[in-house]
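Quick one, T. Sequence first:
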Amino acid sequence: MTYSFQNPSPSVIRDYIQNAKTIAVVGLSNREDSAAYGVAKVLQSAGFTIIPVNPKLAGQEILGEMAYASLRDVPVHMDIVDVFRRSEFLPDVARDFLKTDADVFWAQLGLESQEAEEILRTAGRQHIVMNKCLKIEYRNLSAQ
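C-alpha coordinates:
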Protein backbone atom coordinates (compact mmCIF):
# COMPACT_ATOMS: atom_id res chain seq x y z
CA MET A 1 0.00 0.00 0.00
CA THR A 2 1.38 3.38 -0.93
CA TYR A 3 1.04 6.35 1.34
CA SER A 4 -0.93 9.26 -0.07
CA PHE A 5 -1.32 12.25 2.20
CA GLN A 6 -4.29 14.48 1.43
CA ASN A 7 -3.63 18.19 1.81
CA PRO A 8 -6.41 20.47 2.98
CA SER A 9 -8.51 22.19 0.34
CA PRO A 10 -7.11 25.27 -1.42
CA SER A 11 -9.47 27.47 0.58
CA VAL A 12 -8.17 26.06 3.89
CA ILE A 13 -4.56 26.56 2.76
CA ARG A 14 -5.48 30.13 1.76
CA ASP A 15 -6.91 30.69 5.26
CA TYR A 16 -3.72 29.36 6.87
CA ILE A 17 -1.63 31.86 4.89
CA GLN A 18 -4.00 34.81 5.27
CA ASN A 19 -4.23 34.32 9.05
CA ALA A 20 -0.48 33.89 9.53
CA LYS A 21 1.83 36.57 10.81
CA THR A 22 4.75 34.54 12.18
CA ILE A 23 6.42 31.70 10.28
CA ALA A 24 9.15 29.55 11.81
CA VAL A 25 11.43 28.09 9.14
CA VAL A 26 13.01 24.81 10.29
CA GLY A 27 16.28 24.21 8.47
CA LEU A 28 16.81 27.85 7.48
CA SER A 29 20.49 28.56 7.00
CA ASN A 30 22.47 31.65 6.13
CA ARG A 31 23.31 30.21 2.70
CA GLU A 32 21.68 32.63 0.30
CA ASP A 33 21.57 29.99 -2.47
CA SER A 34 19.44 27.58 -0.40
CA ALA A 35 15.75 27.07 -1.10
CA ALA A 36 14.85 27.78 2.52
CA TYR A 37 16.66 31.13 2.42
CA GLY A 38 14.93 32.15 -0.82
CA VAL A 39 11.49 31.22 0.46
CA ALA A 40 12.04 32.90 3.83
CA LYS A 41 13.32 36.09 2.18
CA VAL A 42 10.24 36.33 -0.08
CA LEU A 43 7.87 35.72 2.84
CA GLN A 44 9.71 38.23 5.01
CA SER A 45 9.52 40.87 2.27
CA ALA A 46 5.77 40.15 2.06
CA GLY A 47 5.43 41.20 5.70
CA PHE A 48 5.63 37.90 7.58
CA THR A 49 7.86 37.64 10.65
CA ILE A 50 10.38 34.88 9.98
CA ILE A 51 11.89 32.82 12.79
CA PRO A 52 14.94 30.75 11.80
CA VAL A 53 15.21 27.34 13.49
CA ASN A 54 18.59 25.68 13.02
CA PRO A 55 20.58 24.13 15.89
CA LYS A 56 23.91 24.76 14.15
CA LEU A 57 23.19 28.50 13.87
CA ALA A 58 21.33 29.10 17.16
CA GLY A 59 22.11 32.54 18.55
CA GLN A 60 23.15 33.93 15.17
CA GLU A 61 21.06 36.18 12.96
CA ILE A 62 19.61 35.04 9.65
CA LEU A 63 17.70 37.63 7.61
CA GLY A 64 18.00 39.93 10.61
CA GLU A 65 16.19 37.49 12.94
CA MET A 66 17.64 35.47 15.84
CA ALA A 67 17.98 31.76 15.08
CA TYR A 68 16.81 29.17 17.61
CA ALA A 69 18.05 25.62 18.16
CA SER A 70 14.56 24.08 18.22
CA LEU A 71 10.89 25.00 17.97
CA ARG A 72 10.65 24.62 21.76
CA ASP A 73 13.10 27.51 22.16
CA VAL A 74 11.05 30.01 20.14
CA PRO A 75 9.57 32.51 22.65
CA VAL A 76 6.62 33.65 20.51
CA HIS A 77 3.56 32.00 18.95
CA MET A 78 4.20 30.49 15.52
CA ASP A 79 1.31 30.51 13.07
CA ILE A 80 3.06 28.25 10.56
CA VAL A 81 6.08 25.99 10.97
CA ASP A 82 7.60 25.62 7.50
CA VAL A 83 9.93 22.61 7.43
CA PHE A 84 12.97 22.34 5.15
CA ARG A 85 14.35 19.04 6.47
CA ARG A 86 14.46 15.76 4.56
CA SER A 87 11.36 13.59 4.88
CA GLU A 88 13.05 11.14 7.25
CA PHE A 89 13.44 13.99 9.78
CA LEU A 90 9.77 15.07 9.66
CA PRO A 91 8.70 12.77 12.55
CA ASP A 92 11.30 14.41 14.82
CA VAL A 93 10.16 17.87 13.76
CA ALA A 94 6.53 16.80 14.35
CA ARG A 95 7.40 15.73 17.91
CA ASP A 96 9.12 19.08 18.50
CA PHE A 97 6.08 20.86 17.00
CA LEU A 98 3.81 19.14 19.53
CA LYS A 99 5.76 20.77 22.37
CA THR A 100 4.67 24.21 21.10
CA ASP A 101 1.38 26.00 20.53
CA ALA A 102 2.12 26.45 16.82
CA ASP A 103 -0.89 26.24 14.52
CA VAL A 104 0.13 24.73 11.16
CA PHE A 105 2.74 22.06 10.38
CA TRP A 106 3.92 22.67 6.80
CA ALA A 107 6.44 20.43 5.01
CA GLN A 108 7.95 21.98 1.89
CA LEU A 109 7.64 20.76 -1.68
CA GLY A 110 8.95 17.20 -2.06
CA LEU A 111 8.63 16.40 1.66
CA GLU A 112 6.07 14.18 3.33
CA SER A 113 5.94 11.54 6.03
CA GLN A 114 3.17 9.18 7.05
CA GLU A 115 4.79 8.80 10.49
CA ALA A 116 4.84 12.59 11.01
CA GLU A 117 1.19 12.82 9.99
CA GLU A 118 0.24 10.03 12.42
CA ILE A 119 2.19 11.69 15.26
CA LEU A 120 0.41 14.99 14.67
CA ARG A 121 -3.10 13.58 14.18
CA THR A 122 -2.82 11.25 17.19
CA ALA A 123 -2.03 14.33 19.28
CA GLY A 124 -5.10 16.12 17.89
CA ARG A 125 -3.20 18.42 15.54
CA GLN A 126 -5.13 18.53 12.29
CA HIS A 127 -3.59 21.53 10.49
CA ILE A 128 -1.05 19.78 8.28
CA VAL A 129 0.26 20.66 4.82
CA MET A 130 2.90 18.55 3.08
CA ASN A 131 4.67 18.56 -0.26
CA LYS A 132 3.74 22.18 -1.03
CA CYS A 133 5.90 25.28 -1.28
CA LEU A 134 4.69 28.05 1.00
CA LYS A 135 6.18 30.71 -1.31
CA ILE A 136 4.34 29.31 -4.35
CA GLU A 137 1.07 29.06 -2.41
CA TYR A 138 1.52 32.62 -1.15
CA ARG A 139 2.23 33.92 -4.66
CA ASN A 140 -0.80 32.05 -6.04
CA LEU A 141 -2.91 33.69 -3.35
CA SER A 142 -1.47 37.13 -4.16
CA ALA A 143 -2.21 36.64 -7.86
CA GLN A 144 -5.93 36.09 -7.25
